[in-house]
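Q&A log
Question type: sequence-to-structure
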Amino acid sequence: MSERIARWFHEAQHRWPSVRWTAARFGIHVASESPNFPLDLYLSGAASEWIDDAWVAIHTECRPEVLRRVARIARQCEMAEDLWSEAVARLMAEDKNTELLANGRRCGRIRRFRGLVPLPSYLSVVAKRIALSRIRKIRIAMQYNHSARSHGASFAANPDESLDEREDTDRFARQFARAFAALTPLRQALLSLIYGPGVAKGEAGRLLGLRDYEVSRELKAALGSLRDQLELTNHDSWSIMSAETWARAWTEVRSLQEGEPKDEA
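Response status: OK
Response body:
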């Protein structure tokens, strides 16, 4: 274990003496990374390996700040306490991509936190994404009900025309799905964050490890690639704006189908 990891470990033990995690496990958790907030990485790592006192510390120290940060958005969907509880529940779920621990369980999903931002900030992002997902569902339901009422009469009068419109939409959706799948994983993730949960470009860049200018460059390239792919089958019918519109609609639908935004940090 390196000298800096040993120093972080001793500082964390001094701050949370009741959290009994080993230096060896902490060293494995840090690996070769250079976290901006190593003590938060220690606490989250201990929590990911089911050390109860780590979760107690998270509840005591992080909850007030998270509740404050989500208070405004919580008014649009549910209580801030409910968002906190849901965020914690999701991060306590076992991560299928991790190794089995000695107790036979896999690490909790909070292990994905890598100490790039303060732990309360990370928890707040998870809670806000839950809120945004639920707000979108409410809005989509409202829009659907309004649309159904508005178009019910016209559909009854001319069902063939409405059927043609739906077939065209389904065809474009299939073509867009293929074009989206052809993008690099980074560009898929960038579009999904910005147009799905509505994450700000700067925050999306931080989550993906991109600088501000790289976010703009990759976003422009992703939309341009979508347009080029789609124009192969629909000449002169796709612009950057239409690709952006479909990207927003597509990633919103994907987000709702998956039920949860990704929690990378």
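Response note: Residues 144-162, 256-265 have pLDDT under 50 and may be disordered.
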